[in-house]
Amino acid sequence: GGITLDPRAIARIGARFPGTIRELNAVIGQSVEAGETLAIVESSDSLQRYALKSAVAGTVVKINGAIGDVTDGAPLIEVVNASQVWAEFHVFPKDLSKVNVGQEILIRAAENDSIAQTHLESMLPVADELTQSVIARASIDNATGLWRPGMSVRGDIAVATNEVAVAVRTSAIQMLNGASVVFVREGDAFEVREIATGTNDSLWTEVTRGLESSESYAAVNSFLLKADLGKSSAE
Asked: For site-directed labelling of 201, which of 76, 107, 165, 226 has its Cα 20 to 30 A away?
């Protein structure tokens, strides 16, 4: 899927009447408040000047004109508020029966390590004529600005859940000599522990043998421990 803007967070500001741009107070990339004056236009008919104000708080992304230009009714300035964005995904016919509004979805950016966990908010009631896919949409809090409209993303949807006795982070598991292992804390060090695994998803993997629920293990950066183990074995 991809990141898109909520149309309600886009303001395209144009002149109400044909006229000449006398002042331009906005630059691309500038943060503005709702109601802030961005330009002054002088009406060609009345010669009166009036202000063009932003309808939303956000960032100026387009300016189509300069001081002295005559407006023609087209939007002069575009402001967007990207503090909340949409992630839109194509759900294909074979998966439609398993995907529903309200399901948990884990969203990953294609080009960096950004992850967002949220819920599907809506699915369009129509299918694309060419692909027969249906758009599913989730909202992402983008206060940090990490999710930029136009970015490609992947969405993993939880279609079923299982209660298991012991589970570890999937990222903690490493392959060593053909076996699945985790690094279990023993005092001030870690030891390699071979485990047997069951069901899994991108975040969690069931452990059916080799680890007790009370034990601590390296949940992140376990690949560094594996690399250190390889160095010590070589020596």
From this structure: 226
Please tell me the distance from the alpha carbon of residue 179 to that of residue 30, in angstroms, as a whole number: 54
Instruction: Locate 99 and state its tokens.
Output: 């995907």
Q: Give tens-digit pLDDT for 29-54.
A: 999 999 999 999 999 999 999 999 99
Please tell me what DSSP assigns to residue 102.
T
Asked if pLDDT for residue 231 goes beyond 80, the answer is no
Q: How far apart, in Å, are the Cα atoms of 12 and each of 2, 37, 77?
A: 23, 13, 6
Section 76-89 average pLDDT: 96
Instruction: Mark out the alpha helices in the chain (DSSP H runs).
Output: 222-234
Q: Enumerate residues 6+ apart whose C-beta is below 8 A from 13.
A: 38, 39, 52, 53, 54, 55, 75, 76, 77, 78, 79
Sign of CA dihedral 166, 170, 176, 177: positive
31 in Cβ contact with 177 (< 8 Å):
no
